[in-house]
Amino acid sequence: QQYENILVELRGRVGLVTLNRPKALNALNQATMNEIVAAVSDMDADPAVGAVVITGSEKAFAAGADIKEMASKGYMEMYAADWFRAWENLTRLRIPVIAAVSGFALGGGCELAMMCDFIISGDNAKFGQPEINLGVIPGMGGSQRLTRAVGKAKAMDMILTGRFMDAEEAERAGLVSRVVPPDSVVEEALKAAEVIASKSKPVAMVAKEAVNAAFETGLSQGVLFERRIFHSLFATEDQKEGMAAFTEKRQPEFKHL
Ligand code: HXC
Q1: Burial of 1 by CB count in 10 Å (0-12 exposed, 13-18 middle, 19+ buried)?
Q2: Cα(85) to centroid(ligand 1), Å
Q3: pTM of the prediction?
Q4: Which residue of the set 64, 103, 131, 167 is catalytic?
Q5: Coiled-coil regions in this chain (predicted)?
Q6: Assembly ipTM
Q7: Which residues line ligand 1 (CB under 6 A)?
Q8: Who contacts 5 (Cβ-Cβ below 8 Å, separation ≥6)?
Q9: How far is CA 44 from the centre of its chain?
Q10: Which of 11-20, 85-94, 150-159, 186-195 has the lowest mean pLDDT?
């Protein structure tokens, strides 16, 4: 498939999606976001792909939703088109998705990164929800996901003042899982994705589902959900293989079954 705003490659069992609108600092217009969702959905459905990395450039992961595309819209246009609704499809995918962030991850860019399963950050990264400077608020889950990631104090601070958070603060606050030099962000994310893709894909998918359940359920329901999934995995060939490999002191060869 041909894309205009992103580059898509397959490295072994890892899919790499690179935002490619350098002149607009990878601002996310509808076309770009639709392409990202389409590309990652294809990978989700492809048994040959075990994990995905989404990245931008060293200067910008994405500087936000495309302000120029939105600026002149009216309420009914936004409402009738349910602007940004399609982006949610990204959060319904089952394949693990890593955001490899260098430079600016602002507004919709920060929200895109937070829709991924975890974020690996360059030490030059700047995260922010500066929508308040434009007379709006986050519109793709920023007020919810940032608050869950970093807590009320920092989320309020960032969303009300529009200030940026650097990579060090983002790691301290729990927004990102690792910080590395900007020129090795993609490599580090690809390595992590390769590790994930070497596991059983269906098991990685339910692991992701179980962690995500922590944000939607109470503790006892969440623990029960986990245990039911845990039990169900004993119906898989990959559980038999994983445990046999341990006993036989060899590497497992998962069949994704
Ligand atoms: C459209 C954008 C853009 C954006 C940058 N550009 N961000 N175009 N939408 N979000 C364009 C600029 O207009 C400019 O194009 C080119 O990219 C380079 O940007 P500069 O501003 O010249 O670069 P620099 O001086 O280095 O400043 C970088 C920056 C600044 C600090 C990131 O661009 C900036 O503040 N951008 C907007 C950040 C923001 O407010 N994001 C939130 C968007 S609202 P030209 O043609 O002039 O050279 C949002 C709503 C979320 O995301 C709702 C749900 C998604």
Answers
A1: exposed
A2: 21
A3: 0.97
A4: 131
A5: none
A6: 0.96
A7: 24-25, 27, 63-68, 84, 104, 106-108, 111, 130-131, 134, 138-140
A8: 19, 20, 21, 29, 31, 32, 35
A9: 13
A10: 85-94
